[in-house]
Amino acid sequence: MSSQPTTYLTPEEYLAIERKAADKSEYIDGVIVAMTGASRRHNLIAVNLTGEIRRQLKGRPCESYTSDMRVRVPSTRLYTYPDVVVVCGEPQFEDDYVDTLLNPTLIIEVLSDSTEAYDRGKKFGFYRTIESLAEYLLVAQDEYRIEQYVKQPDSHWLLSDYRSLEETVELMSIQCQLILREVYDKVNFT
User: Fold this and answer.
1) Is 5 exposed, middle or buried (0-12, 13-18, 19+ CB in 10 A)?
2) What is each CA distance from 52 to 14, 47, 48, 125, in whole angstroms?
3) The whole model's pTM is what?
4) How confident is the model at residue 18 (pLDDT cuts 50, 70, 90)?
5) Where are the alpha helices (DSSP H) in the chain?
6) Candidates 3.40.50.720, 3.90.1570.10, 3.30.160.270, 3.40.50.150; CATH matching 38-183
7) C-alpha to C-alpha distance for 103 and 87, rounded to whole angstroms
């Protein structure tokens, strides 16, 4: 039985390939991992999140980005595309291409069956090493549920769990609110 050898790339090689590629790929410790397409629910939720946050950030010194903004986790060899990312203050980028953010304040991932374990586990572990990151949200697409992790002064993370359409998530790091009813607008679970 044979298997294909894994080719390891440097971050510079990955970026050179990624910047020319038609499809997005993440980079994890030397390996390129192709990203799959998102479901209708995933897209609706991501657009709703982006719209709600963008509306509330108008005129304020924060910028929100969609899943096309790559984030590098400086303490690891990870380049990834969160579903929504917000930076407050002056954004820092890896280079003059201005396509790889280094200092996110808030990261939001919309969960899917194929990524949920990774988003909750190893990826969150990587994200926690980003000094600027103050908040991390996991948003379910198969039920009404938002899990909010907020970095505490002692660097531990506090979890709050929201499951009612009437609940509001207070995003303290960016001074915004997410009402679950708005996040799940037009999302049907039947």
Assistant:
1) exposed
2) 33, 9, 6, 27
3) 0.94
4) very high
5) 11-18, 40-57, 116-120, 122-127, 180-183
6) 3.90.1570.10
7) 7
